[in-house]
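queue> holo job accepted (glutamine)
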Amino acid sequence: MSTRIGVITFPGSLDDRDAQRAVRLAGAEPVALWHGSHDLEGVDALVLPGGFSYGDYLRCGAIASLSPIMTEVIDAANAGMPVLGICNGFQMLTEAHLLEGGLIRNDHGSFICRDQVLRVENTDTAWTTDFTGEQEITIPLKNGEGGFVASDDVLDRLEGEGRVVFRYVDVNPNGSLRDIAGICNERGNVVGLMPHPEHATEPGFGPDTALAMRSGVDGLAFFTSAIQRTLASA
Ligand SMILES: NC(=O)CC[C@H](N)C(=O)O
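queue> job finished
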């Protein structure tokens, strides 16, 4: 039986279909879940996708983090289920306090869209075991509120505990403190990042490989990692 990975659609989600496709390309079964439901339909892992939930009103992800299904997401995350928040999904995970810190407006004040190089600094999380340590990957970045902020204490703790999972390389595109692109919770089952792995899973449809000199499918390993994790704990 294949791993079933749920992708939650919120009002204003944009990348839910791409996330479902990435799950399928990685070899798992995508399960479409709705924010207004209280049923995770027995999935083995969860993706909170990118987009503009509730039109980014209040703060990006703030209203969606109060959706009915988030009660179940929080319970599942606390029980150890692999949960990945991508961009708007990362914003929701910080708003729901499943991840520390917060995301604020890019320091240059504009929406940004680019192929971004990241360094994978923790390969022990549920979503990164298929990377090698210090591996540099290129995946798309597209957001208006991607600046990661936290107090010095929290930043020191995240770094000290190896919970900075991804760091921006070459360019810091948004003013994120300490070049942080993504983090995980203490257990390593909940991961959030601003760039978009689901958009780099299919040759010819991801980053500009001529420019990046890379495969263009660096995002696939997020999903294959989660599949390995769910099979290992089955
Ligand atoms: N791609 C996204 O998920 C964007 C998230 C959010 N709407 C922002 O602009 O910051």
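queue> The chain has a mean pLDDT of 95.
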